[in-house]
Amino acid sequence: MKKSAAAVTAAILLFSAAANAAYTQNDIQTSVNSAFDWLEQNASALSNPGNVASDFYIMALSRMNKEYSYGKYVDLTEKITPTTKQDGQRLIMSNAACGEFLSDSFVGWYTYDADFTTASDIAGAVITLDSGGFAAPNGSPGSENLAATLLTYQQSNGSFENDILSTAKSVIALSRYLGLEFEIHGENSNEMYTYNVDDAVYNAVGYLSGVQNADGGFSTVSNTVYSIIALDSVGVDADNDQRFIKNGSTPLTFLLSMQLSDGSFNSSAEDTALSACALVSHLRAMQGKSGFFNFISSDSVDTIVSGGGGSSIAPGGSSSVSSSQSSGSQGSSGNSTAQPSATQNVIRVTPMPTREPEHSSTNEEQYGPFPFVGPAQQSEQPKKAAAATVDQDTSGVVIILICAGALLILLIAAAMLLCRFKPELVSKLDIARKLIPDKKESEKTEEPEKDLLSEIDSPGEVVPTEELYDPDFIKKLIPVDEIDSSIGSLIESDQENTDNTDTTDNDNKTV
Fold first, then answer.
1. How many domains does the chain have?
2. In a domain? residue 33
3. 120 domain residue, yes or no
4. pLDDT tens, 298-311?
5. Angle CA(279)–CA(281)–CA(286) in degrees, nearest 5?
6. Which segments within 262-303 are labelled E, that is strand?
7. Contact indicator for 98, 71 with CB cutoff of 8 Å
8. b/e code 62-78 from CB counts within 10 Å (16+ = b)
9. Among residues 160, 156, 82, 87, which one has the least CA distance to residue 123?
10. Which domain covers residue 80, as residue numbers?
11. 297 and 432 fall within a common domain
């Protein structure tokens, strides 16, 4: 995959800008030793072997060249049966850090023979296999196949699964393959896709820089630890590179701010062990040593002795940076190697990766390979920002509609409860509604009342039998109220006549 010389030159100039490191080797070593002292007193690896804190504590001790009862730890882990793939991978690496390499069947069960569906799990398998130089038997997908498969998980923003931890672990896994390209077949036999490892790592490092917080960290201790180790593994100084200095803070600034006066990190055994691994990794990077998870390398950390005028190398150590590094190791601090290179060695993966590339323009998310994303393409960022704004506006309208619907449902429910428990209020409302004249009703012409008898006598009109037995039916036919009122008036008139007659008779009698 050829890149223009101008783009590569621009990237190198961008990466080379750096500030002075905030922490010295003596600072890092002092912090590590303090963490080791706390762990030994509160979470000894021999007291609970096989858990997260113990396994990472052993790895940190080994990579710091500390004397320890490594053989006893290995013996204690012989009867442990990991419950997850991640636990198995961690146990394989902690044993490798002790110089003990587990059987091929055990390693295979948790790496090349396992069924992985996430980038984080695949990256963990690659790191595990490369940590001890484990080779898969013929016919099984080895670390190269898994690394090629991992490349197919990278998304268009440079991340792996849009997750900090998965992206950092993927960078660590791919660090051994810098300078290589992988050729992978697509769905059809004539489709061939080339994945450039340097491009993938560069884009992933860019993603990590973009999601870094203002305090220099990555939200959690675990995310920050793996990000520091990832940057160390590809030669990016986590305490010196301009891309990872936010408001004067770096990942090292954030991590060391978590360390308490007793040497622990957040008073947590797991956080302390993980943080010790990150600090040891960075100290090794500052001295130009091999990567943290490269347990088969023989280079050792130089012990720093603080003196009156600063720090110096302890007797027996070398004051010069080691130039012999195993494959996948990082360069000296301040030299960024996570950048695209023009010359690549191509590896055609056999057997095929466990996951086919996804290259459909109709997919919402695109998966690698992706071209070099350098300064020349930064003009595309406003477009992405505008698209994000449109998505936010659309989501706002949906939220308003949902709220309006919920309010309508509440009003209906309130009306139903009012009718159920306060019928007198409903009746009052009904009376008030009747008292207020309806403009439309007043405008209507009054229709003449229909004569029920004429309707019944009209041709073709049939009175239902039910109405004949209805007690009110006769009342409808005969206006009883009017008859009663007429009879009443007649009785009153007759009574008056009777009274008048009696009065006349009395008068006559008197005369």
1. 2
2. yes
3. yes
4. 788 887 765 544 44
5. 95
6. none
7. yes
8. bbbeeebebeebbebbe
9. 160
10. 5-305+326-373
11. no
